[in-house]
Amino acid sequence: MSQEEENREVTASSEPKPGLVRRLYNWVLSWADTPYGSPALFVLAFMESSFFPIPPDVLQIALSAGKPKRAFWYAGVSVVGSVLGALLGYLIGYMFWEATQSFFYAHVFSEESFDQVKDLYQTWDFWAIFAAAFTPIPYKIFTIAAGVCGIGIPMFIIASVIGRGMRFFAVAALMFFFGPTIKGWIEKYFNLLAIVFTVLLIGSFVLLKYVL
Fold first, then answer.
1. What is the pLDDT of residue 204?
2. What is the DSSP string of the chain?
3. Distance (Å, rounded) from C-alpha 92 to C-alpha 98?
4. What predicted TM-score, i.e. pTM, was given to this entire model?
5. Which CA distances in Å does 194 have to 5, 14, 187, 201?
6. From residue 118, how far is each of 27, 52, 129, 203 by CA, in Å?
7. pLDDT computed for residue 50 by the predictor
8. Which of 52, 54, 53, 50 is nearest to 92 (CA)?
């Protein structure tokens, strides 16, 4: 064995084992290499809207990289699964929050973050849901808080469909037109661009309403 190979073995053995989130991330990606990619994507999108930590974009991008012509199909699967999962999150908040809040505070999000979201709903109900659905802000906090606060379901669904649709179909468009070569770029910069776009969009409406 060469000295270089020995060094690699020592380095590998000294690296810390991946944490729970990283193992979940790798598990999610593993579905891209199976015939069950689309059902797995639906289930992932559904779960992420209420309790699962890994966003569906991870699997959607991996599936689209392998089959760019099906990128918009995968986006549709993500949207449907995510919005249905959002309704589950709403139901948890609306009917079962007293029984489940200790679990969510201990394992999913903090009580401080949840209270901040409830405060946002006092003024920015539609825009708060849209921003959470489109950006990397944890969507699950907003879906459950919407149920706790009794946000109107039609408005909740519309904001979720628009936000989730824009996010997942934007990813699909990039994968469809540019293929696997843009995969790394999306993973590195898409969330930042989504935040910037959302800030500019909401800011422009605030400007129109209060200034002009």
1. 53
2. --HHHHHHHHHHHHSPPP-HHHHHHHHHHHGGGSTTHHHHHHHHHHHHTTT-SS-THHHHHHHHHH-GGGHHHHHHHHHHHHHHHHHHHHHHHHHSHHHHHHHHHHHT--HHHHHHHHHHTTT-HHHHHHHHHHSSS-HHHHHHHHHHHT--HHHHHHHHHHHHHHHHHHHHHHHHHHGGGGHHHHHHHHHHHHHHHHHHHHHHHHHHHHT-
3. 9
4. 0.82
5. 42, 37, 12, 10
6. 33, 21, 11, 21
7. 92
8. 50
Q: In the prediction, which pLDDT does 72 show?
A: 97
Considering only residues 11 and 207, tell me which one the structure prediction assigns the higher pLDDT: 207
Alpha-carbon distance of 42 to 54, in angstroms, equals 13
Other CB atoms closer than 10 Å to residue 86's CB: what's the count?
Answer: 32
**Degrees to nearest 5, angle at CA 154 with 153 and 159:** 95
Cα of 50 vs its chain's centroid, Å: 10
The model's confidence at residue 4, banded by pLDDT at 50, 70 and 90, is very low
Structure-block tokens of residue 81:
């699964």
Pick from 94, 95, 162: nearest CA to 129: 162
The residue with greater pLDDT, 33 or 203, is 33
Q: Which of 58, 63, 23, 61 has the alpha carbon at shortest distance from 44? A: 58
